Every structure is written in C-alpha cells, then in structure tokens.
Amino acid sequence: MKFFVLLIIAYLLGSIPSGVWVGKLFFKKDIRLFGSGNTGTTNTFRVLGKKAGIAVLLMDILKGTLATSLPLLFGLNVNPLVFGVAAVLGHTFPIFANFKGGKAVATSAGMILAYNPAFFVYSALIFIIILYITSMVSLTSMISAVLITLSTVILPFAIPAILPQFDWLLTSIALALTIFIFIRHKDNIKRIKDGTESRVPFGLGAHKNDKTKD
C-alpha cells in the first residue's frame, strides 16, 4: 500500500506545472498561450524571461529529485528510479494542466540527481557542452539523451567512480526516455532539418538568427 501511495505522490509532484503557475502568479500570463505553448523551461525562458526560466528549471529538477527520494525518505526498499519515472510522467502528462506538460528533460535530470549526483554532474556537463556547440536546446536534449543512455552502459566499466555498477533499470529507463524525448521533439526535428529552429543567444551557432519558435 505504501508503494502505491508514494507512487501517486511522485506522479502528483511531477504534475506540478511550474511554468504555468509561475507565469500566472507573477506575470499574469499563461505561457501555454505564447511561444511554443509548451509548459517547460525553454518556453518559460522565451516568454517570461531569464529569472522565471531559471526558477522553473530548478522547480522542474526538484520535482524529479524529490519524487525519486521518496523511497529513501519513507524507508521503502524499492529502486528509486521507479518513482522518478512517475514524476517524469506527471511532468509530461500533468493532471493539474489538462495532461499537457513539458518534454521530460528537466525532471529526468532531477531523477538522475537523486539517483546518483556524480552521474548528474557528468550528464549536465554533456548537456552544457553540446548546447554550446549547437545553440539549440531541442537538439541538445536529443543528443544528450542518446549519449547519457550509452554512458549508463559504458561508465560502469570505463569510469566506475561515476557509475559504480551497471543498472539494467537505469539503462532501460534512459533508453525509453530517449525515445520519448525524440517523439516529443518531432516538430523541432522538422525545424532543425528546415534550418529554422530557435537558438539560444550563445554558443558556436548563436550567430544564426532563427525566427521559428521552439
């Protein structure tokens, strides 16, 4: 019974629509009506600005971290990644926002943070480096997801200090999330092919001015 109750709590934590709530509470704006219409960090940055974007990013990461920590907090002997996945599903299909949420990236990062902080830092570095190279959050998210999934297999043998042992559940979840992230970015993939995808104002590709919204 405790398992199912905590699983529901994890989903509800993930369902908190950070971008929507921050926009309505502090800016009197529903970000779903602007930009890409997405409730996640990227659209928050674009519609509400840097401070709001950072706040939503941290909140979305925290949702995944807190949900994944539930087994430890309540003494449940279950792989914490199960609860992290529940939070990711909540973030993507939030009950508090008509089941239309973000693209799973930030909350997945929070799940990794709770599961293995060293692996989180490693994954964050991958994301930052690729973002600098591409200047596109969407493309960075997809490439990072692939590399992080591969890393769950390679690191236990190559650099065990970061990931001490192979966890088939971690690899399976990473692979599933990678596929899911690609599906959620299908419109972005089309714009990347067309050369019209939005870019962040820094990095090697930042000089290209794109008009299309993420």
UniProtKB/TrEMBL annotation:
UniProt KW keywords: Acyltransferase, Cell membrane, Lipid biosynthesis, Lipid metabolism, Membrane, Phospholipid biosynthesis, Phospholipid metabolism, Transferase, Transmembrane, Transmembrane helix
Subcellular location: Cell membrane
Annotated EC: 2.3.1.275
TM segment ranges: 111-132, 139-159, 165-183
InterPro entries: G3P_acylTferase_PlsY (IPR003811)
Membrane topology of this protein: Multi-pass membrane protein
Function description: Catalyzes the transfer of an acyl group from acyl-phosphate (acyl-PO(4)) to glycerol-3-phosphate (G3P) to form lysophosphatidic acid (LPA). This enzyme utilizes acyl-phosphate as fatty acyl donor, but not acyl-CoA or acyl-ACP.
Full protein name: Glycerol-3-phosphate acyltransferase
Organism from which the protein derives: Enterococcus ureasiticus
Classification of source organism: Bacteria, Bacillati, Bacillota, Bacilli, Lactobacillales
Gene name of the encoded protein: plsY
